Amino acid sequence: MEVGMIGLGRMGMNMAKRLLRGGHRVVAYNRSPEKTQEIVSHGALGAYCLSELVEKLSPPRAVWLMLPAGNVVDQYIQDLSGLLRPGDILVEGGNTHYKDDLRRARILEEKSIGFLDVGVSGGIWGLEKGYCLMIGGEKEAYERLIPVFESLAPKDGYLYCGPTGAGHFVKMIHNGIEYGMMQAYAEGFALMEASSYREHFDYSRVAHLWNQGSVVRSWLLELLESAFSSDPRLSQIRGYVEDSGEGRWTVQEALESSVATPVIAVSLFQRFLSRQEDAFSDKILAALRREFGGHHILKAQAKHDSHGKGEP
User: Fold this and answer.
1) Of 92, 178, 246, 291, which one is the catalytic site residue?
2) pLDDT exceeding 90 applies to what percent of the chain?
């Protein structure tokens, strides 16, 4: 198939590469032309403005957005709504609030342009492992793009979740659960770090051990093993943890639905606390976000002795 890919950041670039590996014709655009040139070197066709991208795609077109959530998505959808034609499909693959999908779908429906909201999980590992895709929108539009989903996802790695907003709703809950899982690991390792046995523990080996048949085994533990292998006490990381929105939206949804989600709520609040402290548990959270998503971390500040010399 032909796919237009807009946004070549950590996720979009690797998704475009995976589509190329799957034999699809990819036309790519990024605001900074250097990223466009990079994907062209892998076999994509480059576009240096939105109109050029649309012109290089054969109707009915499929255009996939991988952009930061918020106003930037609204601006691109507004611009594309004047360029795309009836029967084309626009896919919104960023971490967007599902209520924004409902509003955007109505705008595109007026011009008979299809809309799919796709929650994407896989981080910086998706190129090799594949992406988990949670898809909402018109069933007909979904069925047309199944070859694209099959190329992006591993076996059984994509699901039609329901009408508009359902894909991003499921992704929102997915990320809320992720917050809670990460917090549980962080607290457990923090307890070990505070114990009298601390000097005996090799956290990389503990994380590896727990993935051998334990009920708490997971990919997150594999990532922790990797993080501890390169920095055994995470001394190079500040325990400063950002949140990208989905945890907040999940807690808001819980409040609106009167559903108790104490673990997810506490894990969100702990991220707020991390910006005031530098606890070992927060270093775990920061390390995990770097490992699975390539998220930026803050380097630990050197401690100084009475002579003003930094500790190594």
Assistant:
1) 178
2) 85
Query: In 3-state terms, what secondary structure has residue 13?
Result: helix
Phi-psi region of 144 (alpha: psi -120 to 50; beta: other; left: phi over 0): alpha
Q: Which entry of 17, 35, 171, 283 is annotated as an active-site residue?
A: 171
Q: How many residues does the chain have?
A: 312
From the list 142, 67, 60, the residue with the least C-alpha distance to 100 is 67
Regarding pTM above 0.85, the answer is: yes
3-state secondary structure of 304: strand
CB 220 within 8 A of CB 185: yes
Alpha helix locations (H) across 110-157?
126-129, 139-144, 146-152
**Residue of 25, 79, 33, 31 lying closest to 56 (CA atoms):** 25
The dihedral built from the CA positions of residue 141, 146, 147 and 149, taken in this order, carries a sign that is positive
pLDDT at 307 over 70: no
129 is catalytic: no
Structure tokens, 100: 């924004």
171 is catalytic: yes
Calpha distance 25→118 (Å, rounded): 20
